[in-house]
Structure formats: structure tokens, C-alpha cells
Amino acid sequence: VMPDHLLPRDVVVMNSRVTFVDLDTGLESAVKLVYPDEAGAAAGNVSILAPVGAALLGLRVGESIEWPLPGGGRRRLEVVSQERQ
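^ that's the sequence the OP posted. Answer follows.
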């Protein structure tokens, strides 16, 4: 574990507001990464324990990640921007 101030500013951390694009659909989304008790779609908050939250945590702007979906297939996301809250 590392204090936020020691991480590069473009790394996605807890409470980051992250904009990402689905590389398969081109759909852009923005979420805030939070602990599970603060999560809620209406507020745009996503738990760091949710698949997309865990996937985004630790990525840098411009990086992408791909992971398998439970029903088959894959999902690919790229971080467009992030802002620490």
C-alpha cells in the first residue's frame, strides 16, 4: 500500500473520478471508485470490488485492460481521464 501523494497523478486510485471507453462498443462512461457501502448507479459510484472497479484500479490514463465475462466473451476498457477527489 502506498500513500496517494507518492503515486503518479495519472494513476486511478480510490475516490478517483474515472472516464473510460469500452473498446468494443466505443461507449464512454464516467464513474467514481468507492468502497462497497458507497456504491450506487444513481450517484455514478462503483465499488472497487465490482468487476469494472477492480479492473480500473491502478491503471494509468491511456492504459487498457481486458477480462473474461462470466457468461463468456470479454470486456476491454481504456482509461481516458481520471481526477482524484
